[in-house]
Design brief:
The chain has 340 residues and is an alpha+beta fold. The protein has seven helices and 20 strands. The longest helix is centred in the last third of the chain and has 19 residues. A hairpin with a 2-residue loop joins strand 17 and strand 18. The protein folds into four domains: 66 residues, 2-Layer Sandwich (Uridine Diphospho-n-acetylenolpyruvylglucosamine Reductase, domain 2); 113 residues, Uridine Diphospho-n-acetylenolpyruvylglucosamine Reductase, domain 3, CATH 3.30.465; 31 residues, no CATH class; 104 residues, Uridine Diphospho-n-acetylenolpyruvylglucosamine Reductase, domain 1 (Alpha-Beta Complex).
Length: 340
Amino acid sequence: MSLVVQKKIDLKSYTTMGVHSIAENFIEVSTIEELIEALKWAKEYEFPTFILGGGSNVVMPEHLQGLVIANRIMGRQVDHLKNDKVLIRVGGGEGWHSMVSWTVENQWYGLENLALIPGLVGAAPIQNIGAYGVEVKDAILRVQYLDKQSLTTHWISKEECLFGYRDSIFKQQLREKVIIVAVEFELQKKGEIKAEYESLKAYLEDKSIVNPTQKEVFDAVVAVRKSRLPDPNVLGNCGSFFKNPVVRAETFESLKKENPEIKAYPLGNGLFKLAAGWLIDQAVGKGYRKGVMGTYEHQALVVVHHGGGSSRDVQAFVEEIRLKVLQKFHLELEAEVQLV
Ligand code: EPU
């Protein structure tokens, strides 16, 4: 097999933030065998490797030595199980939204609330993507990865993935050690509709939809996302830039005393998740702009890039946001997006 290594590729159009970034070496792989070949090639030259999925949750440096591997491993397999369940096994390089649309067309329930999230299937488990009251862990059964060291593949169960809020083993112990090549989901043929999330519920009520079908939830999520989040083809962004901070009840109570309007969700165990979007909105506002960077005009949690910037611009801007939130609320925001 002959690998096609492209030289000095600008990754700007491979990432949704759209900052300039030159990769010395770049390969697209469409099978596990090609992926192994690419890793062997990098090992031979002692190049570090970086795996690029849909580029929607990452900010790349101006210059990247080593090898960037773009995951294009496709494939969808379906197994109809007993008890009205269906098991689907999907290649890590498949587009997330197109896969979700396909499950909705087939009326397999479970992923409709996660419509229109940018990125690839293989990236979804890494940060346990979530939206509108659902997290991907709710539907995952197993994840298959390639170990970069041994070059062997392994399946791990949902429990072994150690999923948390925007977190998993792939961000912790297995960080940079493995590449996700496939994900197995268990979906339901007679599913439960989840439409309690505030903005989703408000949208459906506004449209006088009382008992929404799966397709109506899917369409509503698409509409709400389009109205709240910028289209990366028009304006560079990575969705929510920071995680919603989780604090103890005492911290929440004292913040609430000073800020009666603060937005928070009780998580149980005396913990509260605060809306980072609200905190940033108070600290700098929506549509705040500094040079080529800014916060989105409808959602302060989304950092936007107006064009022509580099990862340094992104870094400086997010540091400013973090500092302003720290000064105002004494809270440290943690980035959800990976800054390479
Ligand atoms: N809010 C403001 N001002 C803002 C933004 C938000 O006051 O500028 C308030 C809203 O009014 C609302 C609360 O903050 O009361 C929460 O806002 P929203 O419902 O938009 O959700 P979020 O917590 O900001 C999370 C996810 C999003 C996901 C939405 C919808 C995180 C970090 N973000 O955002 O995920 O789409 O819920 O479920 O958990 C992503 O991860 O990239 C992402 C977009």
